[in-house]
């Protein structure tokens, strides 16, 4: 026993890989780590200089775009014909035309200006709310900005405004340039989020924050990392959750906005003599890797290849194929045994599923056999013949209509749900037929609220029990009385409660025991085939969640049905 455990332990994948790792990979990783650290140390100053240069270019581009948008707005408000016309009391069609011309100029500016997210023109007094956005500005953001300026125009009204400020709208911060005069306002909006994302070309990140206020307008880092960084913005290195970043700070020159440029530290291949020596040592160790590979191939790769080939053949349909259980690695042996067990279980489930499908088909076919009520059909034809001899054509027409409606309901698919209203109509049709054919017509009281009659139920759910009641009471000399009641109950889950009560002799003790039993025997034999069919269909349609009970009360037989609510 101890020898087997020792053999299994030596064959474990974790032990084999650990030995290979200690012998070959660990020394290689140590040397590569030393080499990487040394290279990164040399490149620190070069990286810092490159980052400063990158941030200068980026900041200058942003500043020039914002300044260009400001010059454009000044030009529009000072000398723009369209802006001046919008201040006049012109007809609405002319106002709309000048608004369109101004928006065309806005769109032309947005083609060349990569920083500005949107330009606006507002004249609330004339119902003018024009805006042009970049294609990357979402619809929700556009709506938030338009509503913000509409609210702002209510405060400004016909006053004058000429300012640049930072505002939080929704979840984003924006740099807004606003010029307003004589009830007409122009504005440009710059999203810190957009200008940061538009400039990302690699692993760099940006943080925009206020120098004095410390408010963070945009960050690519977590809130905690951003707080630490802005409080120590003069430090060169930031240790973030996804690695180390070298940081460079620069004032944007607009409203005391600061930009932090973060570049993830990486090593590059700039080799000196020391680095070359380290590289040669790494190569020497790498020469030992073929021996490691041979061992891994025998113990890992070959068994894995065999397992994959087995899986592919099973995938192609060879479900009788099994994996080799005796493997050189203990974990592979466990996988093979588990996989083979899973295949055996799948085959078992497939057989059970096939048998269940056959049972469903059998239930459907035998239900159709139940639907074909030959005696009832023949009796209806005899009654029609008798009425024809009496020349009671009006009654013949009524009976044919009721019979066709009843037969249409009987012949529909037993596993498709129908509205409760249609089931109630089929019961009424059947009662009407019985009234025409019986000397002592039956009486049915249906107490089902209108608001629950749109819920879906299986066909023949009520009709089967009504037919059963009339069939067993018809031999007596008293009038058949059936009371059908429906309601919705809520007890953790909404359910539809339907009950059928008759004035017959009720169920015998043997029948009650058999009908209320949850053990399924041969449901489709004997005189209770219709009731058994209903129970079978409820079980199929509601997966065991439907409840049906049979009992006797002082009036006669009583049936309670509880099914989950399903709307049309």
UniProtKB/TrEMBL annotation:
Transmembrane segments: 20-38
PROSITE patterns reported for this sequence: HAMP
Xref: InterPro entries: Bact_2-comp_sensor_kinase, HAMP_dom, HATPase_C_sf, HATPase_dom, Sig_transdc_His_kin_internal
Protein's cellular compartments: Membrane
Molecular function GO labels: phosphorelay sensor kinase activity
Key words of the record: Kinase, Membrane, Phosphoprotein, Transferase, Transmembrane, Transmembrane helix
Entry annotated with the keyword ATP-binding: no
Domain (HAMP): residue spans on this chain: 298-351
GO cellular component assignments: membrane
Protein name: Histidine kinase/DNA gyrase B/HSP90-like ATPase
Species of origin: Murimonas intestini
């Amino acid at each position: 026993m101890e020898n087997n455990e020792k053999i299994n332990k030596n064959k474990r994948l974790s032990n084999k890989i650990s030995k290979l790792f200690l012998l070959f990979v660990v020394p290689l990783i140590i040397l590569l780590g030393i080499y990487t650290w040394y290279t990164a140390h040399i490149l620190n100053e070069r990286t810092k200089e490159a980052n400063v240069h990158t941030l200068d270019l980026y900041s200058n581009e942003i500043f020039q775009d914002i300044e260009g948008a400001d010059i454009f707005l000044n030009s529009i408000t000072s000398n723009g014909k369209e802006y001046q016309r919008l201040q006049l009391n012109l007809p609405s069609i002319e106002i709309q035309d000048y608004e369109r011309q101004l928006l065309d100029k806005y769109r032309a500016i947005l083609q060349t200006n990569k920083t500005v997210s949107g330009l606006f023109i507002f004249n609330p007094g004339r119902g003018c709310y024009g805006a042009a956005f970049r294609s990357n500005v979402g619809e929700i953001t556009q709506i938030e900005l338009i509503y913000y300026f509409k609210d702002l125009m209510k405060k400004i009204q016909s006053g004058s405004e000429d300012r640049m400020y930072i505002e939080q709208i929704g979840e984003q911060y924006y740099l807004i340039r606003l010029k307003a005069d004589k009830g007409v306002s122009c504005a440009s909006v710059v999203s810190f989020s957009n200008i940061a994302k538009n400039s990302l070309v690699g692993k760099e990140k940006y943080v925009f924050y206020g120098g004095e206020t410390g408010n963070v307008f945009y960050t690519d880092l977590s809130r905690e990392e951003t707080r630490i960084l802005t409080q120590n913005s003069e430090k060169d290195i930031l240790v973030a959750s996804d690695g180390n970043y070298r940081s460079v700070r620069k004032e944007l020159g607009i409203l005391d906005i600061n930009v932090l440029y973060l570049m993830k530290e990486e090593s590059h291949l700039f080799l000196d003599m020391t680095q070359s020596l380290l590289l040669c040592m790494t190569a020497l160790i790498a020469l030992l890797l073929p021996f490691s590979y041979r061992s891994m191939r025998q113990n890992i790769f070959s068994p894995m290849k065999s397992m994959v080939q087995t899986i592919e053949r099973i995938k192609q349909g060879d479900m009788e194929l099994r994996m080799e259980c005796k493997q050189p690695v203990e974990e592979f042996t466990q996988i093979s045994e588990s996989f083979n067990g899973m295949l055996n279980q799948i085959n078992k489930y497939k057989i059970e599923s096939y048998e269940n499908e056959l049972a469903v088909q059998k239930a459907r076919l035998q239900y159709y056999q139940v639907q074909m009520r030959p005696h009832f059909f023949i009796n209806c034809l005899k009654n029609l013949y008798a009425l024809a001899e009496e020349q009671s054509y009006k009654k013949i027409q009524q009976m044919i209509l009721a019979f066709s409606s009843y037969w249409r309901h009987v012949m529909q698919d037993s596993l498709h749900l129908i509205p409760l209203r249609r089931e109630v109509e089929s019961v009424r049709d059947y009662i009407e037929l019985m009234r025409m054919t019986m000397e002592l017509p039956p009486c049915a009281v249906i107490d089902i609220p209108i608001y629950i009659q749109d819920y879906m139920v299986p066909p023949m759910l009520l009709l089967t029990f009504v037919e059963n009641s009339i069939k067993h009471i018809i031999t007596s000399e008293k009038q058949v009385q059936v009371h059908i009641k429906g309601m919705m109950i809520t007890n953790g889950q909404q359910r539809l409660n339907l009950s059928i009560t008759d004035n017959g002799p009720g169920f015998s003790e043997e029948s009650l025991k058999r009908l209320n039993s949850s053990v399924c025997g041969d449901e489709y034999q004997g005189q209770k085939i219709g009731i058994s069919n209903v129970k079978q269909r409820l079980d199929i349609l509601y997966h065991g969640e439907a409840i049906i009970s049979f009992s006797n009360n002082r009036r006669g037989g009583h049936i309670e049905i509880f099914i989950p609510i399903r709307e049309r």
